[in-house]
Amino acid sequence: MVERLNLSLDAVSSWGEANLVGFNATKTQACLFTAKRCQFTLAPTFQNVSLPLTDDLELLGVSLKSNLNFGSIIESRAKNAAKKLGVLFKVKRYFTPNQLISLYQAQVRSCVEYCCHLLDGSAKYQLAALDAIERRAHRLFGDDPTIKAKLQTLEHRRRVACLSIFYRIHSGECA
To answer: Residue 58: CB partners within 8 Å, gap ≥ 6?
Structure first.
């Protein structure tokens, strides 16, 4: 397995040289994604640099754990979104309902929807933290049905994101 991994890393390095792409091997991360409790002893190398295995990877603001459990990501996003929503509650009187929706979508919704297609497979009890933010946000807008009609549920948005990714993969757009 390590041999195949190293061959794949050599292929990536060769591709980079052929296409004038430089890789910093010292910043390259390696993580073994497995549900097994005992760790394998792997020693992959990339451009003659030994890559230590870590328990999690940071990629574009998403922390991927080796067991692919997104509970900590969801918790941190819910906490960040709750802070932003709290600020919106404090400044509510200075904005019209339409301005509040725009602020909510830009500041809070974008926070909880980032890479939501990854989170959709998480347990319902983990996603409940994000749904609680959504329920709290509905109190921000009051009982105005026209305002609530403008907002789709987070669950709906996650499903649309997943279907969109699936369609792109199926149609070959992600190749």
So the answer is: 29
pTM, full prediction? 0.67
Residue 50 DSSP SS3: strand
Please name which of 28, 18, 22 lies closest in space to residue 49, comparing C-alpha atoms.
Answer: 28
pLDDT tens-digit map of 112-165:
888 777 777 778 888 888 888 888 888 888 777 777 777 888 888 888 888 888
Domain boundaries along the sequence of the chain: 2-54, 71-171
Q: Which residues contact 98 (CB under 8 A, 6 or more apart)?
A: 147
DSSP-based three-state secondary structure for 30: strand
β-bridge partners, 45: 50
